[in-house]
């Protein structure tokens, strides 16, 4: 049986974009922040200068979506300024300026469980969120997060005594490796069978390592990302007698520990 400590953080955001890396003309957003975004926020808040391994559970909800216009700047490396082509001249180089559209989530509420591999970091991470040294943001730099709760909780793998569901209107990223421990109920009053609708599948960035694809004398460093296969769903039921991770307040936690 796994027993560990985690930092549970509840936060709220007004308008936010968790950008999908493959979207350009319309800067689309994920329904919840990817793992790498949350891990990056933790490292920034704590002032970590090297990577600290951690597992993250992400769940939450939003009220609606809107589209917003923003100014976009484009340039090509080494392209000289041409008056007929570029709107801005920077030195001798040309920069194009135009408008684009970003998809924003409205009134976002998140519940995060942060489980550092080094459990001695629990208090340091909790303190960084309880007394932030700078304003916390998640998503874009301007997407300020209001921290509503920081609590150190104990997580254990238990046999559920009663059926356990997500909080009302909440969705969660569920790693595909733990799908067998869950029942999906898209509509408790419909004729759709359980597990017939799992949700939306994503490959989300998790962490990266720097890889040199150049030479020793002329290094070219690239980020080699590892990705996590997950389903985003809003209809989850942990059935009675199933074994699953819960925190001390009975909140489900979506972790991949074997």
Automatic annotation (TrEMBL):
Name of the protein in its database record: CRISPR-associated protein Cas5
Entry-linked InterPro entries: CRISPR-assoc_prot_Cas5, CRISPR-assoc_prot_Cas5_N, CRISPR-assoc_prot_Cas5_Tneap
UniProt-listed GO biological process terms:
defense response to virus; maintenance of CRISPR repeat elements
- Protein species of origin: Listeria booriae
Protein keywords: Antiviral defense
What is the top-level taxon of the source organism? Bacteria
């Amino acid at each position: 049986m796994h027993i560990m400590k985690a930092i549970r953080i509840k936060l709220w955001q007004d308008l936010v974009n968790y950008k999908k890396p493959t979207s350009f003309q319309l800067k689309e957003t994920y329904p919840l922040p990817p793992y790498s975004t949350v891990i990056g926020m933790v490292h920034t808040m704590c002032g970590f200068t090297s990577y600290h391994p951690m597992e993250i559970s992400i769940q939450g909800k939003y009220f609606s979506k809107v589209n917003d216009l923003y100014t976009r700047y484009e340039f090509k490396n080494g392209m000289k300024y041409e008056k007929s082509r570029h709107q801005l001249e920077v030195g001798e180089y040309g920069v194009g300026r135009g408008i684009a559209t970003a998809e924003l989530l409205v009134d976002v509420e998140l519940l995060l469980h942060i489980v550092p591999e080094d459990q001695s970091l629990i208090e340091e991470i909790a303190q960084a969120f309880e007394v932030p040294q700078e304003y916390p943001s998640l998503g874009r730099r301007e997407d300020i997060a209001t921290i509503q709760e920081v609590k150190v909780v104990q997580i254990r793998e238990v046999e559920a005594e009663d059926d356990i569901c997500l909080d009302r209107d909440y969705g969660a990223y569920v790693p595909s490796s733990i799908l067998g421990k869950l029942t999906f109920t898209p509509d408790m009053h419909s004729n759709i069978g359980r597990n017939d609708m799992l949700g939306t599948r994503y490959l989300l960035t998790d962490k990266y390592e720097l890889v040199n694809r150049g030479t020793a004398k002329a290094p070219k460093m690239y980020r080699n990302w590892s990705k996590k296969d997950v389903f985003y769903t809003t209809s989850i039921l942990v059935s009675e007698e199933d074994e699953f991770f819960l925190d001390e307040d009975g909140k489900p936690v979506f972790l991949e520990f074997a």
